[in-house]
């Protein structure tokens, strides 16, 4: 802003200055022009004035000299006149020209004529003698050839002394005499001091020759011969010129000087007249130069002839102030200056005014623009506010949550607005609720617990938050997450309350769902471990309070693994779901059925003290589970084993009771399954043993506690030993020899079966190779594979390694697989079997007939042997289906070109039946129990063997 103002001021100053400069320039121009005209006029005037004086002087002198010529004419016409004549003739002339000091006639007298002449003159003047003037005294003139003697001189008074004066020797005459005589004209002398008057006078002489009458005068010679004298006039030159100029009123002009020289130039010695002073102005006048203030015309000079002699006249004008003479230029100057100043001032004023107007206009415009901007901003703000309000209104309108606005007037807090979401959530229209009490909307008429918080928030005029159950117009309830907040008006007073209601029924449902999921088994929907713990704890507490008994029942499905492994997990899951439902249906309302994972269920039966009802419940559970089960069009028969722990006798807390129930369940399993067992403290020992086995199994391999026993396989036709099955034994340092049935399952669970299985294959191969090397013949070694081992990625490698390491022929190794192993994932099984088959090993299906096998799949497997499960063999003689099954299996195997081996042959009858129906090989206690390597070798030594 300051810069702007500075710029404006500068531009204003420049404009004014420009105007001033132009004005001054014009003024200077006008001034110079006027001054020039004035100067010119003045110079002209001066010239005129000078010329007037020059003319007056030259003309006057000419006139004066003319008087002499008149006298001279007298002499030349009449010859030498008498003295009296001369006096009378010159008297009027002298009267008219008082400046004419003397008129004289000088006669040319030769020396010869001197005496006569003096004598003649003495007649009239007694003492007349020719004299000369030396040292201011008249003395007789010395002799000289010629004398020019003043014979007449008028006026006599004052001039009488000059009579008889010989002027021939007077230098003052100069050559004027000779010139006049030669030319026959008047001639003037230069300036000379006049002696006729007292005092100092400057004058000049004018001579005019007087010739002898009638003598020829045409040539110089003639004129020199004819000359007899001359007339002379003596002028007091100063007086004469003064008179001339004075008469013409041309004297004493202020500031004008007239200098007249009796010479052609301004020679100081020849200054004949001087009048006035024309001194130049002194250098400068103040700060202004002279030329500016003064007119300074050049002096006017002229040369004029006085009796044939050049005279010089100089008329000078003292510089005159223009103010004195003509003030026009000054007026012009002053006027111009004034005009310029006025114009500059005017422009300055105009521009300043314009600038001021512009500035003011600019300021006002800026102010207006600012105001406009503010207005625009205000409008924009208002628009934004309105837009925001509209948006908020819209948001409220379209909000999925209910919004209620009520006034702050208690006790009703009348509803003033509800949004459409409120209408759709509650089923009440706006018209139905507007004007009604806010409290009536929140479950009035229903049993509500949290409305007090709303009342408190309204009463205390503060924010509030509450979750409550609201009811729709149709009476249905929903969960409402309600926020209430006061709304203040512009004065800060609370005028309204806004209530936002979120229908959180879905959230509540979700939470309930989460809670349900957190507490229930996803597969069966039964209580899970977490809920079981809660229920059991509360049941224990309740039983404790009531002093009653409480049963905890551990249920484990028998052979579930088989179904799961055979039909896959989906079938297993379906089975669990069905059986879970059945178990639940078998217990009472207040009982809890939970699933612990896998095929284990834990039940809490609080209301069944030892009144016999509890045992009925257990039986109902077993019966329910044992009912035929149909899954994927197949019918199964599943049983379960139950263990029961009783509070408070078997434990005071949930963990102990559950653990003891689990132990009892194991005992039931050991007892042959499909039964129940109540916990007894001595059961703890076997459980502890299991735990110890688990711990020791981890080190069994590295401690070389595992050994293989071998059971011979006999060819039915020849009775020769053709092979053997390797059966694992754990020679526990404390427990003694542990059956694989006790630890194979554990080894599977613990993942130890992979290294153990690899060890078995390697050991079996090495042993077989050792025996063969020892000459026991080419025997086939059968090795059991576990399910986990079969599907494990290391199987192929461990078999290959074992064969390579031992050098055993692959055809001397037979891998036994169970039905469940191969049927769980047929395609994968085929792949694995083919790879194994490519190695050259034999493949056998173990325990065939106990599980579910699809014959169509069976045909696709590259098998060599079917091994009839010993349970069928055992029952052959019992007249059950077993014999038929065995026959079918042998027939089936042969149709698939597979060898059949029957295991568990204990009697000769069984052997006879098998032989009769074409069974290829047999294995069992009838021939030999599984024995150690040494024993097997001695066995072989007594019984010939070959591999068929
Ligand atoms: N009652 C009766 N039993 C007879 C008779 N002849 C043989 N046995 C027994 O029947 C079982 C046959 O083995 P398995 O069915 O493969 O059943 C085996 C097999 O599934 C598994 N097993 C044994 N060794 C291994 C092994 O090295 N690896 C794997 N994965 N499992 C093995 O442990 C199971 C049990 O093995 P063992 O206790 O050795 O029990 C053996 C054997 O001693 C008989 O005439 N009457």
From TrEMBL:
Residue stretches making up the PAC domain: 462-516
Domain PAS: 388-461
Pfam assignment, any one: CHASE
Annotated localization: Membrane
Domain of life: Bacteria
Domain spans labelled CHASE: 77-244
Membrane as UniProt keyword: yes
Domain EAL stretches: 690-944
InterPro entries cross-referenced by the UniProt entry: Biofilm_reg_signaling, CHASE_dom, CHASE_sf, EAL_dom, EAL_sf, GGDEF_dom, Nucleotide_cyclase, PAC
Domain GGDEF: 548-681
Keywords: Membrane, Transmembrane, Transmembrane helix
Protein name in UniProt: EAL domain-containing protein
Organism: Massilia frigida
